[in-house]
Amino acid sequence: MVLDPSSTIAVVGGSLAGLRAAETLRAEGHTGTVALIGAEPHLPYDRPPLSKQFLAGTWGLDRVLLRPAEKIAALGLDLRLGHSAGALDVEGHSLELDDGATLRFDGLVIATGAHPRRLPGAVPPAGVHTLRTLEDSIDLGRAARADGVRVVVVGAGFIGSEVAATCRGLGARVTVVEALSQPLARVLGAEMGAACGALHADHGVDLLTGVGVSALRSSAGGGEVDGVELDDGTVVEADVVVVGIGVVPTTDWLVGSGLEVSDGVVADATLHAADDIVVAGDVARWFDQGLGAHIRIEHWTNAADQGVAAARSLVAGAGDSGAYVPVPYFWSDQYDVKIQVLGHPGPEDDVVVVDGSVPERRFVALYGRAGMLTAALGFSRPRQLMGYRPLLEAKASFDDALAHRPA
Q1: pTM reported for the whole predicted model
Q2: Domain spanning 9-115+248-320: which CATH class is it, in words?
Protein backbone atom coordinates (compact mmCIF):
# COMPACT_ATOMS: atom_id res chain seq x y z
CA MET A 1 0.00 0.00 0.00
CA VAL A 2 1.32 3.44 -0.93
CA LEU A 3 1.89 5.63 2.13
CA ASP A 4 -0.11 8.83 2.43
CA PRO A 5 2.27 11.81 2.01
CA SER A 6 0.92 13.29 5.24
CA SER A 7 1.44 10.15 7.33
CA THR A 8 3.96 9.73 10.16
CA ILE A 9 7.21 7.93 9.47
CA ALA A 10 9.73 6.95 12.13
CA VAL A 11 13.39 6.47 11.23
CA VAL A 12 15.26 4.60 13.96
CA GLY A 13 18.96 5.25 13.59
CA GLY A 14 20.58 8.67 13.41
CA SER A 15 23.61 7.87 11.29
CA LEU A 16 24.23 7.77 7.52
CA ALA A 17 21.49 5.33 6.45
CA GLY A 18 18.89 6.98 8.66
CA LEU A 19 19.74 10.48 7.49
CA ARG A 20 19.70 9.48 3.82
CA ALA A 21 16.31 7.87 4.35
CA ALA A 22 14.92 11.03 5.99
CA GLU A 23 16.30 13.24 3.22
CA THR A 24 14.84 10.96 0.56
CA LEU A 25 11.41 10.99 2.19
CA ARG A 26 11.35 14.77 1.93
CA ALA A 27 12.72 14.69 -1.63
CA GLU A 28 9.95 12.23 -2.59
CA GLY A 29 7.34 14.71 -1.39
CA HIS A 30 6.53 13.33 2.05
CA THR A 31 5.06 16.25 3.99
CA GLY A 32 4.02 14.45 7.17
CA THR A 33 6.00 13.94 10.35
CA VAL A 34 9.40 12.29 9.95
CA ALA A 35 10.83 11.39 13.35
CA LEU A 36 14.56 10.70 13.38
CA ILE A 37 15.56 8.74 16.47
CA GLY A 38 19.25 8.42 17.30
CA ALA A 39 20.90 6.92 20.38
CA GLU A 40 23.72 9.48 20.26
CA PRO A 41 23.11 13.14 21.13
CA HIS A 42 24.99 14.43 18.08
CA LEU A 43 23.63 15.46 14.72
CA PRO A 44 24.32 12.71 12.14
CA TYR A 45 28.05 12.39 11.50
CA ASP A 46 30.37 10.41 9.27
CA ARG A 47 32.09 7.37 10.75
CA PRO A 48 34.99 6.66 8.32
CA PRO A 49 37.02 9.69 9.51
CA LEU A 50 36.87 8.39 13.09
CA SER A 51 39.68 5.95 12.30
CA LYS A 52 41.55 8.38 10.06
CA GLN A 53 41.39 12.20 9.86
CA PHE A 54 39.38 12.81 13.03
CA LEU A 55 41.49 10.34 15.00
CA ALA A 56 44.63 11.99 13.66
CA GLY A 57 43.36 15.41 14.70
CA THR A 58 43.52 16.88 11.18
CA TRP A 59 39.72 17.21 10.97
CA GLY A 60 37.42 18.83 13.50
CA LEU A 61 33.79 18.10 14.23
CA ASP A 62 32.64 20.49 11.49
CA ARG A 63 34.28 18.25 8.87
CA VAL A 64 32.74 15.10 10.33
CA LEU A 65 29.08 16.16 10.43
CA LEU A 66 27.19 14.73 7.47
CA ARG A 67 25.18 17.94 7.07
CA PRO A 68 25.42 21.40 8.66
CA ALA A 69 22.84 22.09 11.35
CA GLU A 70 20.91 24.48 9.10
CA LYS A 71 20.43 21.77 6.43
CA ILE A 72 19.15 19.33 9.02
CA ALA A 73 16.77 22.01 10.31
CA ALA A 74 15.49 22.64 6.78
CA LEU A 75 14.24 19.05 6.59
CA GLY A 76 11.70 19.78 9.32
CA LEU A 77 12.37 16.56 11.21
CA ASP A 78 11.09 15.58 14.62
CA LEU A 79 14.57 15.00 16.06
CA ARG A 80 14.76 12.54 18.94
CA LEU A 81 18.53 12.51 19.42
CA GLY A 82 20.06 10.99 22.52
CA HIS A 83 17.26 8.42 22.69
CA SER A 84 17.11 4.82 21.59
CA ALA A 85 14.17 2.61 20.70
CA GLY A 86 13.28 0.24 23.50
CA ALA A 87 10.55 -1.89 21.93
CA LEU A 88 8.65 -2.24 18.67
CA ASP A 89 4.99 -3.21 18.31
CA VAL A 90 4.65 -4.21 14.66
CA GLU A 91 0.90 -4.81 14.74
CA GLY A 92 0.19 -1.66 16.74
CA HIS A 93 2.55 0.46 14.64
CA SER A 94 4.20 1.97 17.69
CA LEU A 95 7.66 2.44 19.18
CA GLU A 96 8.56 2.73 22.81
CA LEU A 97 11.59 4.95 23.45
CA ASP A 98 14.07 4.71 26.31
CA ASP A 99 12.56 7.78 27.98
CA GLY A 100 9.17 6.09 28.20
CA ALA A 101 7.63 7.99 25.30
CA THR A 102 5.50 6.11 22.77
CA LEU A 103 5.69 7.06 19.12
CA ARG A 104 3.00 5.88 16.72
CA PHE A 105 3.91 5.56 13.06
CA ASP A 106 2.46 4.65 9.69
CA GLY A 107 5.82 3.66 8.25
CA LEU A 108 9.14 2.69 9.82
CA VAL A 109 12.76 2.68 8.65
CA ILE A 110 15.07 0.53 10.78
CA ALA A 111 18.66 1.77 10.48
CA THR A 112 20.17 1.06 13.89
CA GLY A 113 23.54 -0.02 12.50
CA ALA A 114 25.90 -2.17 14.50
CA HIS A 115 28.12 -2.07 17.57
CA PRO A 116 31.66 -3.40 18.12
CA ARG A 117 32.39 -6.95 19.16
CA ARG A 118 34.33 -7.22 22.38
CA LEU A 119 36.86 -9.75 23.55
CA PRO A 120 35.28 -12.45 25.70
CA GLY A 121 35.92 -12.43 29.41
CA ALA A 122 35.80 -9.97 32.26
CA VAL A 123 35.40 -6.22 31.99
CA PRO A 124 38.58 -4.98 30.26
CA PRO A 125 41.05 -2.80 32.16
CA ALA A 126 41.44 0.91 31.52
CA GLY A 127 43.24 1.71 28.29
CA VAL A 128 41.29 -0.79 26.17
CA HIS A 129 39.30 0.85 23.37
CA THR A 130 36.80 0.04 20.65
CA LEU A 131 36.00 2.51 17.88
CA ARG A 132 32.48 3.35 16.75
CA THR A 133 31.52 6.78 18.11
CA LEU A 134 32.89 10.30 18.23
CA GLU A 135 33.70 9.84 21.91
CA ASP A 136 35.55 6.60 21.15
CA SER A 137 37.72 8.41 18.60
CA ILE A 138 38.38 11.36 20.90
CA ASP A 139 39.42 9.08 23.77
CA LEU A 140 41.63 6.91 21.58
CA GLY A 141 43.26 9.91 19.90
CA ARG A 142 44.13 11.42 23.25
CA ALA A 143 45.72 8.16 24.42
CA ALA A 144 47.58 7.52 21.15
CA ARG A 145 49.32 10.92 21.24
CA ALA A 146 51.23 10.20 24.48
CA ASP A 147 55.01 10.20 24.10
CA GLY A 148 56.44 6.75 23.46
CA VAL A 149 53.02 5.10 23.64
CA ARG A 150 52.79 1.43 22.71
CA VAL A 151 49.57 0.60 20.84
CA VAL A 152 48.36 -2.94 20.21
CA VAL A 153 45.54 -3.35 17.69
CA VAL A 154 43.64 -6.63 17.93
CA GLY A 155 42.25 -7.43 14.49
CA ALA A 156 43.69 -6.53 11.09
CA GLY A 157 40.42 -5.86 9.29
CA PHE A 158 39.79 -2.54 7.62
CA ILE A 159 39.04 -0.60 10.82
CA GLY A 160 41.90 -2.16 12.76
CA SER A 161 44.33 -1.52 9.93
CA GLU A 162 43.21 2.09 9.56
CA VAL A 163 43.63 2.66 13.28
CA ALA A 164 47.09 1.10 13.14
CA ALA A 165 48.07 3.36 10.25
CA THR A 166 46.76 6.49 11.95
CA CYS A 167 48.40 5.70 15.30
CA ARG A 168 51.67 5.00 13.54
CA GLY A 169 51.37 8.38 11.82
CA LEU A 170 50.96 9.96 15.26
CA GLY A 171 54.31 8.47 16.27
CA ALA A 172 53.09 5.49 18.31
CA ARG A 173 54.84 2.14 18.36
CA VAL A 174 52.21 -0.14 16.89
CA THR A 175 51.68 -3.91 16.87
CA VAL A 176 48.77 -5.55 15.06
CA VAL A 177 47.56 -8.99 16.17
CA GLU A 178 45.49 -11.02 13.70
CA ALA A 179 44.06 -14.52 14.26
CA LEU A 180 44.00 -15.32 10.54
CA SER A 181 47.09 -16.26 8.56
CA GLN A 182 46.83 -12.98 6.64
CA PRO A 183 44.85 -9.76 7.16
CA LEU A 184 41.43 -9.82 5.50
CA ALA A 185 41.97 -13.36 4.26
CA ARG A 186 38.26 -14.18 4.66
CA VAL A 187 37.35 -11.27 2.39
CA LEU A 188 40.20 -10.87 -0.09
CA GLY A 189 41.91 -14.27 0.05
CA ALA A 190 45.43 -15.14 1.15
CA GLU A 191 47.35 -13.52 -1.72
CA MET A 192 45.73 -10.10 -1.50
CA GLY A 193 45.56 -10.39 2.28
CA ALA A 194 49.35 -10.70 2.25
CA ALA A 195 49.52 -7.53 0.14
CA CYS A 196 47.50 -5.73 2.82
CA GLY A 197 49.82 -7.12 5.48
CA ALA A 198 52.87 -5.85 3.62
CA LEU A 199 51.60 -2.28 4.06
CA HIS A 200 52.11 -2.60 7.81
CA ALA A 201 55.67 -3.86 7.39
CA ASP A 202 56.39 -1.04 4.94
CA HIS A 203 55.62 1.48 7.66
CA GLY A 204 57.30 -0.07 10.66
CA VAL A 205 54.27 -1.72 12.21
CA ASP A 206 54.74 -5.19 13.69
CA LEU A 207 52.16 -7.65 12.34
CA LEU A 208 51.60 -10.91 14.22
CA THR A 209 49.34 -13.33 12.32
CA GLY A 210 47.88 -16.73 13.01
CA VAL A 211 47.61 -16.03 16.72
CA GLY A 212 44.75 -15.03 19.01
CA VAL A 213 44.46 -13.13 22.27
CA SER A 214 44.09 -15.17 25.45
CA ALA A 215 44.09 -12.33 28.01
CA LEU A 216 44.57 -8.63 28.61
CA ARG A 217 47.11 -7.94 31.32
CA SER A 218 46.96 -4.99 33.68
CA SER A 219 49.23 -3.37 36.22
CA ALA A 220 48.77 -4.62 39.76
CA GLY A 221 48.26 -1.14 41.20
CA GLY A 222 46.32 1.10 38.86
CA GLY A 223 44.39 -1.44 36.80
CA GLU A 224 45.69 0.06 33.53
CA VAL A 225 46.33 -2.30 30.65
CA ASP A 226 50.03 -3.08 30.27
CA GLY A 227 50.10 -6.02 27.90
CA VAL A 228 48.30 -8.45 25.62
CA GLU A 229 48.87 -12.15 26.23
CA LEU A 230 48.61 -14.24 23.08
CA ASP A 231 47.47 -17.84 22.89
CA ASP A 232 51.01 -18.98 22.12
CA GLY A 233 52.17 -17.57 25.45
CA THR A 234 53.77 -14.42 24.03
CA VAL A 235 53.10 -11.18 25.87
CA VAL A 236 53.09 -7.94 23.85
CA GLU A 237 53.60 -4.87 26.02
CA ALA A 238 50.95 -2.20 25.57
CA ASP A 239 49.83 1.13 26.96
CA VAL A 240 46.80 1.26 24.68
CA VAL A 241 44.83 -1.65 23.21
CA VAL A 242 42.31 -1.23 20.39
CA VAL A 243 39.90 -4.10 19.79
CA GLY A 244 38.83 -4.20 16.14
CA ILE A 245 37.35 -7.66 15.65
CA GLY A 246 34.18 -6.73 13.80
CA VAL A 247 30.70 -5.56 14.67
CA VAL A 248 27.34 -7.03 15.63
CA PRO A 249 24.02 -5.72 14.21
CA THR A 250 22.11 -3.69 16.80
CA THR A 251 18.90 -5.70 17.08
CA ASP A 252 18.41 -6.33 20.82
CA TRP A 253 15.56 -3.83 20.90
CA LEU A 254 13.64 -5.97 18.39
CA VAL A 255 13.38 -9.07 20.60
CA GLY A 256 9.73 -10.10 20.70
CA SER A 257 8.73 -7.73 17.91
CA GLY A 258 7.82 -10.49 15.49
CA LEU A 259 10.37 -9.41 12.89
CA GLU A 260 12.81 -12.05 11.74
CA VAL A 261 16.24 -11.35 13.22
CA SER A 262 19.22 -13.43 12.12
CA ASP A 263 22.55 -11.65 11.73
CA GLY A 264 20.57 -8.47 11.24
CA VAL A 265 16.94 -7.75 10.39
CA VAL A 266 15.87 -10.07 7.59
CA ALA A 267 14.15 -8.38 4.65
CA ASP A 268 13.02 -9.19 1.13
CA ALA A 269 14.56 -7.90 -2.09
CA THR A 270 12.71 -4.59 -1.75
CA LEU A 271 14.12 -4.08 1.79
CA HIS A 272 10.75 -4.73 3.44
CA ALA A 273 10.93 -6.62 6.74
CA ALA A 274 7.15 -6.34 7.14
CA ASP A 275 4.32 -4.25 5.72
CA ASP A 276 5.26 -0.60 6.19
CA ILE A 277 8.67 -1.51 7.70
CA VAL A 278 11.94 -1.32 5.77
CA VAL A 279 15.59 -1.72 6.75
CA ALA A 280 18.82 -0.05 5.69
CA GLY A 281 22.51 0.00 6.52
CA ASP A 282 24.62 -2.31 8.67
CA VAL A 283 21.56 -3.81 10.37
CA ALA A 284 19.88 -4.90 7.11
CA ARG A 285 20.11 -8.48 5.87
CA TRP A 286 18.16 -8.48 2.65
CA PHE A 287 17.64 -10.88 -0.25
CA ASP A 288 20.04 -9.95 -3.03
CA GLN A 289 18.51 -11.16 -6.28
CA GLY A 290 21.86 -11.05 -8.05
CA LEU A 291 23.40 -13.52 -5.61
CA GLY A 292 20.22 -15.42 -4.83
CA ALA A 293 20.88 -15.19 -1.10
CA HIS A 294 20.40 -12.99 1.93
CA ILE A 295 23.43 -10.78 2.60
CA ARG A 296 24.46 -8.00 4.93
CA ILE A 297 27.02 -5.33 4.02
CA GLU A 298 28.78 -3.05 6.50
CA HIS A 299 30.20 -0.40 4.19
CA TRP A 300 29.59 3.34 3.85
CA THR A 301 28.38 3.30 0.26
CA ASN A 302 25.83 0.59 0.96
CA ALA A 303 24.45 2.49 3.96
CA ALA A 304 24.10 5.64 1.87
CA ASP A 305 22.50 3.94 -1.14
CA GLN A 306 20.33 1.64 0.93
CA GLY A 307 18.96 4.50 3.00
CA VAL A 308 17.71 6.10 -0.22
CA ALA A 309 16.36 2.82 -1.61
CA ALA A 310 14.60 1.90 1.64
CA ALA A 311 12.80 5.25 1.83
CA ARG A 312 11.61 4.99 -1.76
CA SER A 313 10.49 1.42 -1.19
CA LEU A 314 8.56 2.43 1.92
CA VAL A 315 6.77 5.25 0.11
CA ALA A 316 5.91 3.05 -2.89
CA GLY A 317 4.73 0.08 -0.84
CA ALA A 318 6.00 -3.49 -0.90
CA GLY A 319 3.96 -4.48 -3.93
CA ASP A 320 5.27 -1.68 -6.12
CA SER A 321 8.89 -1.46 -5.01
CA GLY A 322 11.87 -2.46 -7.10
CA ALA A 323 14.56 -4.82 -5.89
CA TYR A 324 17.73 -3.41 -4.37
CA VAL A 325 20.62 -5.04 -6.26
CA PRO A 326 23.79 -2.97 -5.82
CA VAL A 327 27.34 -3.50 -7.00
CA PRO A 328 29.02 -3.15 -3.60
CA TYR A 329 31.85 -0.64 -3.30
CA PHE A 330 34.06 0.10 -0.34
CA TRP A 331 37.40 1.69 0.35
CA SER A 332 40.02 1.95 3.06
CA ASP A 333 42.78 4.55 3.45
CA GLN A 334 45.88 2.99 5.01
CA TYR A 335 49.18 4.83 5.24
CA ASP A 336 49.72 6.31 1.75
CA VAL A 337 47.55 3.74 -0.08
CA LYS A 338 43.86 3.85 -0.98
CA ILE A 339 42.40 0.35 -1.12
CA GLN A 340 39.16 0.05 -3.11
CA VAL A 341 36.94 -2.95 -3.78
CA LEU A 342 34.05 -3.41 -6.20
CA GLY A 343 31.76 -6.43 -6.07
CA HIS A 344 31.77 -9.54 -3.91
CA PRO A 345 35.28 -11.01 -3.56
CA GLY A 346 35.62 -14.45 -2.00
CA PRO A 347 38.60 -16.17 -0.39
CA GLU A 348 38.49 -19.08 -2.84
CA ASP A 349 38.12 -16.94 -5.98
CA ASP A 350 40.68 -16.96 -8.76
CA VAL A 351 42.73 -13.76 -8.55
CA VAL A 352 44.67 -12.17 -11.42
CA VAL A 353 46.60 -8.89 -11.31
CA VAL A 354 45.72 -7.03 -14.53
CA ASP A 355 47.32 -3.62 -13.94
CA GLY A 356 50.41 -2.43 -12.06
CA SER A 357 52.26 -4.63 -9.60
CA VAL A 358 51.80 -5.82 -6.03
CA PRO A 359 55.39 -4.99 -4.92
CA GLU A 360 54.85 -1.37 -5.99
CA ARG A 361 51.58 -1.27 -3.98
CA ARG A 362 49.81 0.11 -7.09
CA PHE A 363 47.72 -2.45 -8.93
CA VAL A 364 44.30 -3.78 -9.93
CA ALA A 365 43.38 -7.42 -9.35
CA LEU A 366 40.28 -9.18 -10.66
CA TYR A 367 38.37 -11.94 -8.87
CA GLY A 368 36.59 -14.76 -10.68
CA ARG A 369 34.36 -17.63 -9.57
CA ALA A 370 32.69 -20.31 -11.67
CA GLY A 371 33.74 -18.48 -14.83
CA MET A 372 32.19 -15.14 -13.78
CA LEU A 373 33.75 -11.86 -12.71
CA THR A 374 32.95 -11.36 -9.02
CA ALA A 375 35.04 -8.40 -7.88
CA ALA A 376 37.87 -5.99 -8.56
CA LEU A 377 40.45 -4.78 -6.05
CA GLY A 378 42.62 -1.70 -6.48
CA PHE A 379 45.58 -0.31 -4.58
CA SER A 380 45.91 3.40 -5.45
CA ARG A 381 44.41 2.81 -8.90
CA PRO A 382 40.99 4.50 -8.69
CA ARG A 383 40.48 5.31 -12.37
CA GLN A 384 41.62 1.92 -13.60
CA LEU A 385 39.53 0.10 -11.00
CA MET A 386 36.30 1.92 -11.82
CA GLY A 387 36.66 0.86 -15.44
CA TYR A 388 35.55 -2.61 -14.33
CA ARG A 389 32.32 -1.48 -12.71
CA PRO A 390 30.25 -1.75 -15.93
CA LEU A 391 31.45 -5.34 -16.33
CA LEU A 392 30.30 -6.22 -12.83
CA GLU A 393 26.95 -4.58 -13.50
CA ALA A 394 26.64 -6.57 -16.74
CA LYS A 395 27.66 -9.83 -15.01
CA ALA A 396 30.55 -10.32 -17.40
CA SER A 397 32.50 -13.56 -17.65
CA PHE A 398 35.92 -13.74 -16.04
CA ASP A 399 37.56 -14.26 -19.44
CA ASP A 400 35.88 -11.14 -20.86
CA ALA A 401 36.99 -9.15 -17.83
CA LEU A 402 40.58 -10.34 -18.19
CA ALA A 403 40.53 -9.30 -21.85
CA HIS A 404 39.11 -5.88 -21.00
CA ARG A 405 41.34 -2.86 -20.76
CA PRO A 406 39.67 0.20 -19.20
CA ALA A 407 40.19 3.48 -21.02
Answers
A1: 0.96
A2: alpha beta
